[in-house]
Amino acid sequence: MSPPLLKLGAVLSTMAMISNWMSQTLPSLVGLNTTRITTSDALTQISPKEGWQVYSSAQDPDGRCICTVVAPEQNLCSRDAKSRQLRQLLEKVQNMSQSIEVLNLRTQRDFQYVLKMETQMKGLKAKFRQIEDDRKTLMTKHFQELKEKMDELLPLIPVLEQYKTDAKLITQFKEEIRNLSTVLTGIQEEIGAYDYEELHQRVVSLETRLRDCMKKLTCGKLMKITGPITVKISGTRFGAWMTDPLASEKNNRVWYMDSYTNNKIVREYKSIADFVSGAESRTYNLPFKWAGTNHVVYNGSLYFNKYQSNIIIKYSFDTGRVLAQRSLEYAGFHNVYPYTWGGFSDIDLMADEIGLWAVYATNQNAGNIVISQLNQDTLEVLKSWSTGYPKRSAGESFMICGTLYVTNSHLTGAKVYYSYSTKTSTYEYTDIPFHNQYFHISMLDYNARDRALYAWNNGHQVLFNVTLFHVIKTEDDT
């Protein structure tokens, strides 16, 4: 028997005992032991004059117990023994009535639960009978349903495993957050020890010291090249892309010039992200076609070699006009002294921490590389250095802090093989490898703001990181 049924049985048994006690005990309490009750359902009519009469209990339509007591006529003295017994009896009846009422409420609640359980059990009995009647068919059907459910649940196993892993990660994150909160609390307490003015003075002092330290840094010497990082795949096999090294931190425009000749369309993008997604912000139609891929954007203007000439053009993006143009004296052009890959790459324009440069070759220098520093406004040559490295044997070149670095090839296995310092007018052979991932480099240019090399590698726009060695200037340095 289930617990509710046991509870109901106990209640009914208790009520029967109470009813039996009332039918037997109450008459003896008032001296009426001779009274006989013939039935529990029909009440015997007895005159009240014959004394106290107690009738056996019965049930009303709701299943509650009923106890009937008939008192004699009210002509007894209040001090009579039977009167005292009556009062005692009334008190006991009242107490029992309260207890029975509580039992009644519990019984009704349990009875409703039993009825509900009876309905459910009948339903289950019918289902069991149905299964018994057609067991084989149902078993086959249920087995197939279970199999399909299992097939559906199988892919969830790795998901649950991932959830377990994620739960561990979340636990770790919570622990890290708690640790971070502790650290931040400590920092907050430390900051609270200073007032705003004192903190401000400390920041200003730190900035001043950093600026003084930066002033003592000399231009760095190239030590290592790492990468490349592929930014985008676009265009033909040859081309150029660049940013302005003198632009502000908020200005991250990118310029894109596809092909090495027969083109004068420059595409502009507001950021690297827009460049990657192809969201152009503006297009410029230059007044002249360019030659080669060795252009440079510097301080808001584009510097490029005019096609089939040794003329350098300065073009303003803001005004859309040519601001200056000048012939580079004796410079070879139109594949007379190109880099090893050709492509009219005779004149290479570049910029570094010091300023604007042109790298080319002349007959007067026997086809070897010439380095010229240019005035960025007038394009006038400020000073030139003649090297002994053949221009046609160079794969590409770039300037860092006034030193020209030359690669020995544009193909796989290329490395920085030669450098020339304009500060000391001396050269040295180097051995700085870098990864030519896409086998053909047609543009390699240093950007001083990003401290990176921009490259066009066989239709891939890539970036190389550079490591520079800096020397701290002393008071004795001039």
From TrEMBL:
InterPro entries: Noelin_dom (IPR022082), Olfac-like_dom (IPR003112), Olfactomedin-like_domain (IPR050605), Quino_amine_DH_bsu (IPR011044). GO terms for cellular component: extracellular space; synapse. Keywords: Coiled coil, Disulfide bond, Glycoprotein, Secreted, Signal, Synapse. Residues 79-141, 170-216 form a coiled coil. Residues 218-470 form the Olfactomedin-like domain. The keyword Acyltransferase does not apply. It is found in: Secreted; Synapse. SMART domains: OLF. GO terms for biological process: signal transduction. PROSITE patterns: OLF. Disulfide bonds join C219-C401. PANTHER family: NOELIN-3, OLFACTOMEDIN-RELATED. This is NOE3 protein. It comes from Cnemophilus loriae. The lineage of its organism: Eukaryota, Metazoa, Chordata, Craniata, Vertebrata.
